[in-house]
Fold each of these.
Amino acid sequence: MEILVTGGAGFIGSHLCERLIILGHSVSCIDNFDGFYNPQIKRANIKDIARSKDFRLFESDICDFDSLFRIISDISPDLIIHLAARAGVRPSIEDPALYERVNIAGTINILEACRKLKIERLMFASSSSVYGGNKDVPFSEEDPVDRPVSPYAATKKAGELICYTYHHLYDINIFCYRFFTVYGPRQRPEMAIHKFTRKIFNAQKIDIYGDGSSSRDYTYIDDIIDGLLNSIDIIKGYEIINLGNSKPTNIMDLIQMIESASGRKAEIAHEKDKPGDVHMTFADIAKAQNLLDYSPKTPIKEGVQKFIKWYDTKRQEGLLYE
């Protein structure tokens, strides 16, 4: 199968591209290597797969419709997996217009290309952030998500809505996946597990916002990729699907796991809560289990150990681009 992955050099995208190639697919990647974090990280992510005859890289921006359309027309993919986005809750509060441009207008560009080129199947990366401050847990796909608490969350909800519109108008088959705090080797450097690990290894203070009781449904990268791969042959209609671990972990317990796995101690300082943050994420994964045969296999303690091993190896090799 010919598959296009947008944002394919990123954390989730690079793991997905690797697995797709192993499974025998031809994979094209669109990535603009923007400066949200060090572009060398993304280049390192795809260094090995770039040697494969089944992988093609296109350095382009999904906000440039003419370039995007030419690339997609040339590839003529059977499936587009749209991961490219501007990520991060707190940065979206500082620059909401940028998030609107990339996450909404960029997604419309992808959908317009699908419409014009008659591409019938799309997978769209949404986020657990759309649940906002929901108090009912675990979070179900049927829950109302009309009160996002950050521009990032609002753009992801908007992405789901515009995907539904194109499904309704043009019969494009679209699955939208709400990812819950994905972690593992190559995780973005500003995300909690990576950031906490870096600070512990560098004997730097870790700022904890609030009293440390907030929790996240940390989901190991291999489990997320399994969920996506299990979808490829069944994309029909329009669906929203949670992909999480369904076992939240609070921040203080997470730090203790990192300390144990690294053999180092953390220095912690408590700060006031940040705007846009939520107290808990917790995925109801019943739909993914039924539809995708999804079954996360990596407990958080094991996943943290795998991440620490990867981080320490890269650190010793001098291959960490923070």
Amino acid sequence: MTSIVISTLNIWSINKEERFSEYLEHKSHPANFFNSKDLLKNRLPLIFEIYRGLIEEYISTLGQVLIFGFLLYFTLTSLSFFYFFIWKKQKFLPKYQGTFYIIHDIKWSSINILIESLLVSALKMFQIRYSFVYFKVSDYGYMYLILSILLHVAFDETFTYWIHRIFHTNRTLYRLLHKIHHKSVDVTPFSAFAFHPIDAFGQAFPTFTSCFFFPLHYDVMLFFSFITSCWAISIHDNVPAMPLKLFLYSTHHTIHHEEGMGKFRNYGKFTSVWDRLAGTYSDPDRINYGWQRNQKVKNFFDHLNEIIDKYIPDRTPRYISKKRN
């Protein structure tokens, strides 16, 4: 990747020792949550002693990612499902009747978290050693911090869109990997992490790799890692809480899970930009499960959406699709 080539050729000097020291002092350092030193004490074969530091770091990172992943998934999905599908169903989803595969979704979400954590943990260690990630805002200033966020979003949106699209348009990849996620045609929050681990890692890869192409503050990377997980859960609840069509919100994703042409629409991650430009956008307004929004709020978002349609027009060919109510 770019950072490795540049540092190898000494085009850009990266003080790895200073950065690793800052990493050790960062409040999110894995050893603060899961210290593997006692776990591995006197249990490591002599042949691996030379790698003890790396192994301890990997086990600590893995423990942190696993604990965080399972807590986040089961806490947020359970709360979301209880709120929208049980307690407030008559308000938000009175007409929603579906065939739910919750056991399937929880099973594959658990498998995904377990296996993807092995890969993400290794990638996080690689980041600290070879990427452009940094820890002090003063290194580049606040203006660059804002620019780097925009660069990260553009990078993440672009690569995630095309990776996701390939998982749909390549029949082999869809059948072997992505079909697992689309067993749930009628989605619930539990569907959010229900992926084959290789599929999930492929789509998460851009989030963790933008820092190999340009400097990115470590907290920005952590923030987007967290927001990505929360966003994945929110877009599977079928409730268009903030219907600003610059973003791909829940009913966009409800369409994406439909059989037929639906699953070839709305591939984007956070925004609808690439779907609009590349001709794979589907407007979410035809999805209505009975929630009556406040008219003033509706008018406000309608006005904003007209502006978005003007400056980022939808180039998708129109097709006839059965309206879901």
Amino acid sequence: MARVLVIDDEPAIRSLVVAILRDAGHDIVSAENAAAGLEWLAGGTVDMVVSDVVMPGMSGLELLREVRTRRPDLPVLLITGGGTRPMLGREDRVLPKPFSHRELTAAVEGALA
């Protein structure tokens, strides 16, 4: 079981991702934006981050850069409606919306492996 930090500004999406990953057996913590997620990372222990890309304030891409600075080996999965792939490196994991429960679970398991 891994502890996963889920960051999404849309409560319905955040709740859905939390429920799917909790059902898959993970310990979940969540944040409503990137700044709150970074605060959680500073004070808590997580094995992975799952974050939306498009958020007000700090975007998921900016969050990814900050996480890479603080914890370069921490797996990050970005969830996006599209158009972000060219901005990311090959090593970055992206899950396009809409996604199935199985696709989300498989992407998280792949990142943690």
